[in-house]
Amino acid sequence: MFDVIVLGAGIAGSSFAYKISKHAKTLLIEAKEKESLPISTNIYPEHNKEFLKSDEVNYSDKSICPCVFRTINYMDKNQDGIINSDDFGAPFGYISYTEKLIGSLLDKFEDQGGIAHFNEKVSKISRSNEKVEVITNKGESIEGKLLAIATGSYDFDLQRSLGFGAPDSYYGIYTHFFGDEDTLKKNIKTDYTFHLNANISQNGPLFINRGIDRISIGFLGSEKITYEDLNSKFERILSNYKPIQPFIKDLTRSPSKPVFGKISKHPITQFSKNRSIVLGEAAGLVTAFFYEGLLGGVACAELATRTIKPLLEKASNLTQDELKSYDKDIKRILEPYYTTGEASEILFYKSDSKFENLWKVYVNLINSNNTLRKYIWEAIVRQDVENHDLKRDRWTGEQIFKNLPLILKATYWPHFLKAIIK
Fold first, then answer.
1. pLDDT at 13 over 90
2. SS3 state of residue 419
């Protein structure tokens, strides 16, 4: 009998398994091999450190965080909207090689007695008042007191079988390019590029994350699209889309196939039931506009540990009523931050196919308004997500509306109203 069984070794599952295994007998089950996680270059904002502290991850380890995250480019078709964190006294955070970050957490998990089963899947879950039982694809039956589902967007059937909802999910794709640092510095001046173009996607951004000797580039597609169709579009973008050609000039494309998979957003309504919880992307805890999933993953891991540790210590039955503080903490701490993401989604993705009008105004404001740049910087670096200031975001929306041409104000007013209500 394990105290906790964790399904999934992404950022949510690995960080939760590591944290809770300090206090409980823990098993982690992951469908992939430990060494087969695809390389992933991500921004890692300073606000994540509120939930995964420096004594848990060595942020000075260059294999995990190869460089500091200093600059953002909110890029329009015809102009850059650059924010340099040096103007405000501290960097945005780090660039993370997320496969190395997850690997470090898994190593620490196993070092402190956690047990990991890699290359293994769960085919069935049963639950009673006394325990949870999982049946693996190898026919093994494993029992635990609590089940934590952190399978990302790969398999919603398991959580549905326990009565949980499933978030909205979209297919995305990315690949890497490699080159020496001199070439990268010449090609791309910012660490993170966020670009909107309705012809690329009306659901999310095209992004470029710059590491050391490598960049990742990708975009979010639609809810229903095949790998072949999405990859064909991706190849056309990489070959012909002029705004990004300078970034990849003289770089070597990864020989591996582009990474293709689902990305979730929009949180489910309930995160815990009897003897079971859902974490991270499986719960839809990904920001609706930026598609930032690391925050939701590490936050869930910390909040779940705070709830479950004392319950295990007093031999709780881990009922839904006893686990509800986990739900309350997620909604209290993350909801303000996600509210802004959903309001931005309404303006920039759901207004209509010409949302570039709004995006152009926003990029102009970034270039001209130092207050806006500072507000963005503070939202990223402040280790107090719970008290994210929605008034500042509404002020930003007001500035966008104020700077629209009169004819567009009439067109977009209903969308601004929806965003404000949100």
1. yes
2. helix
3-state secondary structure (DSSP) of residue 7: strand
Distance from CA of residue 248 to its chain's centroid?
24
* DSSP letters spanning 292-327: --HHHHHHHHHHHHHHHHHHHHTT----HHHHHHHH
- Whole-number Å distance between alpha carbons of 389 and 377: 13
CATH fold of 168-263 reads D-Amino Acid Oxidase; Chain A, domain 2 (3.30.9)
Determine the Cα–Cα distance for residues 168 and 345; give it in Å rounded to an integer. Answer: 14
> What angle separates helix 98-111 from helix 11-20, to the nearest 10 degrees?
20
Q: Which CATH class is domain 2-67+92-167+264-336?
A: alpha beta
417 Cβ contact partners less than 8 Å away, ≥ 6 residues apart = none
202-253 pLDDT, tens digit each? 899 999 999 999 999 999 999 999 999 999 999 999 999 999 999 999 999 9
**How far is residue 138's CA from residue 106's CA, in Å, rounded to a whole number?**
22
Residues in the chain: 422
Distance (Å, whole) CA 181 – CA 260: 27
Q: Which two tokens stand for residue 15?
A: 């960080």
Distance of CA 234 to the CA centre of its chain: 21
Give the 3-state secondary structure of residue 152. coil
Residue closest to 101 by CA, chosen among 157, 156, 62, 47: 62
Q: Which two tokens stand for residue 212?
A: 């050391």
pTM for the predicted model, two decimal places: 0.95
Provide the residue ranges of all domains of the chain, joining segments of one domain with +. Answer: 2-67+92-167+264-336, 168-263, 350-421
Contacts of 372 (CB under 8 A, 6+ apart): 365, 366, 396, 399
